[in-house]
Design brief:
- The chain has about 260 residues and is α/β, with parallel strands linked by helices.
- Helices cover about 40% and strands about 15% of the residues.
- The chain has seven helices and seven strands, in the order βαβαβαβαβαβααβ.
- It has helices spanning about 20-30, 45-55, 70-85, 110-135, 160-180, 200-205, 225-235, and strands at about 10-15, 35-40, 60-65, 90-95, 140-145, 185-190, 250.
- Strands 3-2-1-4-5-6-7 form a seven-stranded parallel sheet, sandwiched between helices.
- Helix 1 (about 20-30) links the parallel strand 1 and strand 2.
- The longest helix is centred in the middle third of the chain and has 28 residues, at about 110-135.
Amino acid sequence: MSDPLFSVAGKSVLVTGALTGIGRATALLLSESGASVLATGRDVKSGAALESEQTALGRQFRFREMDVTNSEQVSRAIGFAEETFGRLDGIVNNAAICITGKRLEDLSDAEWDTTLDVNLKGIFRVCRAGFPVLRRAGGGSVINVASVHAEATARGHADYAASKGGVVSLSRALALDYAADRIRVNALIVGSVDTRMSRPIFDAHGGPEGLGLSYRLDAIPRVGKPEEVASVIAFLLADASSYINGTGLVADGGLLTKLL
């Protein structure tokens, strides 16, 4: 019998950016593990197909169109989660964008603003709407997906690094402010993962090897699979992680361990 401390069965969780990459892998793992999942994203056709696929398997899985830059859509999605599942126990803030290859002076105001609006202010919007619902449920766990760029970055990532550094700092501040409500907030500092957002970067350098990365399981640093990150997120949602709060947990395949 599995340890209930490590289980997410019976929990209700909202996942942003849930149609590709880490978000999709997380939504599917939680659903397969017995959680009620509200997957959110902007692609209505793909979202509806994913909902149909999961509900046909008898899982508590719903999709809701939501752009994290739209406060009204965020509020409606949070309300839908509580109405549909009766409560909300967790939030996974995964939605993000990455504009690469531009130094600061080459970034437009619109590009800078868009990166911060999605990656950082999007989390602000979701948490602002979601925390009262988590409080009504007696507390919960919030995971804000950050990046190694919050700790050490690369050329052409000024906007992305600033946004992800903000995610880590915001997570600490929210953990302090909402501990009294039994709401845990952690950032997950993720390395290079094989996702739709990462592949153009790999391709621009002739593959992961051009960035000093490897797919080999015995190599450091290596490229991760979305499912590997999803399993860490599931742990942070489970009661087994109850003593982890207000931190930036690193899951990066060893990327931050090397100088060169």
